[in-house]
Amino acid sequence: MSNRAQIIVGALIVLSGVFLLLSMWLEIDVWAVCLPSALILLGVWLLLRPWLMKTDTGIRFMLLGDVRRRGEWQVADEEIWIGVGDVRLDMSQADVPPGETILRVIGFVGDVRVVIPAGLGLTLHSTALVADIRTPEGKRDAILTPFRWTTDGYEAAERRVSLEVIRFVGGIRVNYPQV
Which contiguous run of DSSP H or E holds residue 144? Predict the structure, then answer.
């Protein structure tokens, strides 16, 4: 997902540059064309999105606010769309089904914090303009760079979570539970 997102963002930047250059040379008001086109593309994408996802994937949309999951909760395939806010997922007591569960966090600005118990496989894919990422192996700052991190033995784990984070600016923290 992160490579595909990076290709899409790169293509959009190149197309924007080409449109702006052409508008300067041809003296055309590019915003009079681009804004309606962008709204049409966004609408088409929103209409097609349900057919591109698994049928049992939950979607949560929030413009402002935080999502907090801790204690006993059921982990299931889900997309969390959040404009500005933090997402906290404490999986130390969560019921994670066997196999792979896919969680996507998509938003503008905010942090994602994840607590994973021993034995749970986690793979993290992050795409952001600017990201501050901390895993048990250390800290990394990523600027326009996709980031991938996977726990040891992910593929062999009975219960696995694939966490995909797409943000404009944000931080990601992965911790093991405090004992």
Answer: none
Do residues 171 and 132 lie in contact, with contact meaning Cβ atoms separated by under 8 Å?
Answer: yes
d(CA 26, CA 83): 36
Distance separating alpha carbons of residues 65 and 161, to the nearest angstrom: 24
pLDDT digits (tens, 9 = 90+) for 70-114: 999 999 999 898 989 999 999 999 999 999 999 999 999 999 999
Q: Under a CB-based contact definition with an 8 Å cutoff, are residues 129 and 143 in contact?
A: yes
What are the DSSP calls for 57-113, one per residue?
Answer: -EEEEEEE--EEE-SS-B--SEEEEEEE--EEEE-SS-BPPSEEEEEEEEEEEEEEE
Output the CA torsion sign for 48, 36, 16, 165.
Answer: negative
Residue partners of 64: CB distance under 8 A and separation at least 6: 83, 84, 85
pLDDT in tens, 26-50: 887 767 777 787 778 777 866 776 6
The helix (run of H) or strand (run of E) holding residue 54 is: none
* CA-angle at 140, arms to 132 and 165, nearest 5°: 50
